Amino acid sequence: MSTMPAHYTIPDTPRAVRYHATGKPGEVLKYETLPDDAREPAAGEALVLMEMVVVHPSDLGMIGGTYGRLRPLPAVAGREGVGRVARLGAGVTTLKPGDRVRMPEDSGAWREAIVARADDLMPVPADIPAEQIAMAFINPPTAWLLLHEFVNLQPGDWVIQNASNSAVGECVIQMARTLGLRTANLVRSPEKHGANLRALGADLVVADDDKALKTVLAQMGGAAPRLALNSIGGMSAITLTRALGKNGQLVTFGGMTGDAIRFPTREFIFKNVALRGFWMDRWARSAPPEILRAVFEAVYACLRDGTLKMAVDSVHPLAGYAGALARAGAYGRNGKVLLRGPAATA
Ligand SMILES: NC(=O)c1ccc[n+]([C@@H]2O[C@H](COP(=O)([O-])OP(=O)(O)OC[C@H]3O[C@@H](n4cnc5c(N)ncnc54)[C@H](OP(=O)(O)O)[C@@H]3O)[C@@H](O)[C@H]2O)c1
Question: For atom 6 of ligand 1, which residue has the closest CA?
Fold first, then answer.
């Protein structure tokens, strides 16, 4: 067995945020002790201490029972984050104590520790700050794939999106800027988010209201987007569809309002607009491993060279998960809410 780096303390009573039934997070989440999570790793296994994990809308969908893929109950909550290898069982040669790995997604990430098969752990770069790398596996690859998988975009092309101040939206803006694309960005509060989004590279920031279509078309000066990215639904999706040019594609990857998308008939008939869907989860499970790795590497490269920076609203101890969830649901938040664990340095 390899020993852990001196500065990590393995919890005697490792805790996790767990639910035994789906429902409202405030009612079903419990902070429980799972002694097995910090047991001595057997041959081929590694003990990982959580460093930083993320609170996502999809976590709440899983806890609430509405997400596209649910876990057997009881389940530890959370999908994304990173940890550090603290101890190794016999025979593990692919990892060493102190290595950073992705927290295993299917087992649930909101936990202090986990023992997993070393071969199942995905090593991730240690030279990127924990707060950024913890968020590298869902939203930035989604933004990257949205910009690469649907339309063969060329420098100068316009992309339009709603919820542009979301984490995905900010990744889209920054990646689009690097690719030489132009973005038209709808938000609920342009006065609050406009300056920040422009600093990230947004070309236009417009209020997502009943005047949005007219405003955005006027400001694009006759150009028409080839790609529209929808994570809201309802009227906002109709605005995006109407803004598209001929043969444009509307890709829906989220439904923050829960409202159904209605097809604006004219655009479907006269402009041959296509309505598509995207789910990173499904894509990642069907993509060849080398392609998945290449997408992650592209994201790491953007994080390293500073062309991508994701906003952090606040970092909470795992035990403070209830306050973190309240913050994650607060209107006007700017950036992701994170939870830190025993391997976090501060
Ligand atoms: N399909 C996939 O593979 C995939 C992958 C990643 C993310 N997603 C989805 O993408 C969406 C964004 O995720 P994220 O992590 O980037 O979110 P986030 O950072 O938490 O931001 C949420 C965004 O949604 C907006 N919003 C929330 N409630 C709204 C409402 N009722 N009406 C209009 N806007 C509303 C917020 O606007 P305010 O700031 O104005 O409140 C904010 O812009 C989520 O639906 C998520 O599940 C999907």
Answer: 139
